[in-house]
Amino acid sequence: MLQRREFLRLGVSGLSLPSLFRLRNAVANEGSEPKERTALIVVFLHGGASHLETWDPKPFAPSEYRGPFQTIQTRTPGLDFCELLPRQAAISDKFTILRSMTHTGFCHGIGQQQMLTGHEVRQFTPRSQYPEILTITNHLRRDTKRELPNYVGVPPIPYLGAAYLGPSCEAFAVYGDPNSPTFKVPGITLADAAQGERMRGRIGLRQQFDRLQRNLDQTGNMQAMDEFEQSALTMLTSPHAKNAFDLSLEDPAIRDRYGRNVWGQQCLLARRLVESGVDLVTTTLAGPTCGRVLSWDDHAVNHHVFDAMKSRAPFFDQAVATLIEDLYERGLDRRVMVVVTGEFGRTPKISYAPDGATGVTQPGRDHWPAANSMMFAGGGIPVGQLIGATDPRGEQVIERRTSVHDLLATMYRHLGIQPRGISINDFSGRPIPLLNEGTPVPELISG
Question: What is the reported pLDDT for 234?
Answer without folding.
Answer: 56
